[in-house]
Amino acid sequence: MKDAAYDTREIQRAIADEREVERAPLADRKEGQANYLATMRERPEVIAERVAWLLDGNYGYGWMMRARQATSRMNRPAIYCQMIAIVEFQCPSRMAADAWKKLTKPQQAHLQRAVEQAIEDFDRELALG
User: Fold this and answer.
1) Band of pLDDT at residue 66, cut at 50, 70 and 90
2) How far apart are CA 55 and CA 94, in angstroms?
3) Three-state SS annotation for the chain
4) What is the pTM (predicted TM-score) of this model?
5) Which of 64, 85, 109, 122 has the most C-beta neighbours closer than 10 Å?
């Protein structure tokens, strides 16, 4: 039986986590952004792996629920990458978007493909049950 109160609490906890990252000292946020940018540039497969972890619930039920609320009509790679920036790198989503813009077009394309593959793999597994 699904517990709506539990779902709500877990989503609220994820939102609180996000706000905490947004309120962190600027030096901490900049460090998180630098680490996130370096990982996107040098190891995009790590970001894709973390997206799979997010969808599997490894960052908590609330984060998983928030991620799974994104529909295929949304830019899921962008949404998920920003979530990974928050939970893995303590980089606020606005700073994550700024980091994305610092990638070259080939780097963006490579990361995009890797994350899309992780999403497709997850969707396929979900469909298989």
Assistant:
1) very high
2) 21
3) CCCHHHHHHHHHHHHHHHHHHHHCCHHHHHHHHHHHHHHHHHCHHHHHHHHHHHHHCCCCHHHHHHHHHCCCCCCHHHHHHHHHHHHHHCCCHHHHHHHHHCCCHHHHHHHHHHHHHHHHHHHHHHHHC
4) 0.92
5) 85
